[in-house]
Structures are given as structure tokens and as C-alpha cells.
Amino acid sequence: MDDTCPLCNVNPETLLHVWTCTALHNKYCQPNSLEVSSVFHEYLDCFKYNLRKKLSLYFKKHKTPDSVITLDLGIFDALSIWDLSLLNSLPLPLSPTAHDLVRGFIPVDLMALLMKYFTEKRAMGIVHSALFRFQNRIYKNLWSPRCDAFSAWE
């Protein structure tokens, strides 16, 4: 059985390759490989921005004169899910990656950070709404077009 991607005919067909395959993108806009991976990176950055924005709005809304609530952005920015280089690591890292987000897994370290400030229900609500938007973008703009191209190839 050939495990080469049938769309690009270059790289092994792996779940991680789905997000970085250049074949589908070359068909429409001829970007280089760096630009293609930046599509996924752009969606991940958008998820991170949306999550930070939701947190910031919540903190502003619930701030009182005697208590200032601020998120530790250093810890937030250091979470392994933002590090795309981990996607190419073999063996796969034990820490959560952006790939886990696509699959719907919410990292424990993200939840632990948010639960310093919120109830579990509130934290889950904030993460789920931002995660849904991220997954929806991935589905519409990367996964679905790839499936269409794959069907055409078959």
C-alpha cells in the first residue's frame, strides 16, 4: 500500500500532512509551502486572538475598583498549543499541540489557567465558542476543499 499523499504525490499521507499539503493550494493560487502552512497558522492565531479577546472583555466587564483581574499572558502565550513546530516533531510530543485543538481536545494547562479566574462552566463556555469558530474555519477552508480534491482524484 502506497502511503504517499495522492494529491501532492510527494509527502507521506499523514493526518498532520492534511494541514500542510501544498497540492490543493497550488491548484488555485500557487503559494510556496511557507504560505500554505501559514493558512493553518493564521487560523490558529485567530483562535488565540478570539480567546484573548473574550477573556479581556469578561475581565473588563467584571472589574471592580478594589480588584483588578488580569490574565497572566506570559503563561497563556507559552502554552504548547501555539507552537506549530511541535506538529512536525517525531515522536509526537506528549504536550498538547494545535492538532489536538483541531480534534476538539482542550488542553488541561489551558483549562487550569482559565479556572484560576472562572468557574469550570464559564471557562468551558469561553473556550468552546472560540474553538468552534477555529474548527469551522479549518473545516470550511482546509478540510472540505481537500476532501473535494481527494474525491476528484479517486
Give the end-to-end Cα distance, rounded to a whole number of Å: 15 Å
The DSSP helix count reads 6
pLDDT < 50 stretches: 26-36
Radius of gyration: 18 Å
Shape, principal axes of CA atoms: elongated
Structural class: mainly alpha
State mean pLDDT (0 to 100 scale).
77
As a percent range, the share of helical residues equals 55-70%
H/E element string?
Answer: HHHHHH
Q: Which range does the strand content fall in?
A: under 5%
How many β-strands, per DSSP?
0
What kind of sheet is the major sheet? none
Explain this structure.
- The chain has 154 residues and is mainly alpha-helical.
- It has a domain at 40-141.
- Helices cover 56% and strands 0% of the residues.
- The chain contains 6 helices and no strands.
- Helix 2 (33-61) runs antiparallel to helix 6.
- The chain is elongated and about 55 Å long.
- The relative contact order is 0.14.
- Residues 26-36 have low confidence and may be disordered.
Please specify the SSE layout and strand pairing.
Elements: H1 23-29, H2 33-61, H3 73-77, H4 98-102, H5 108-114, H6 120-153
Compact description:
The protein is mostly helical and 154 residues long. 56% of the residues lie in helices and 0% in strands. It has a domain at 40-141.
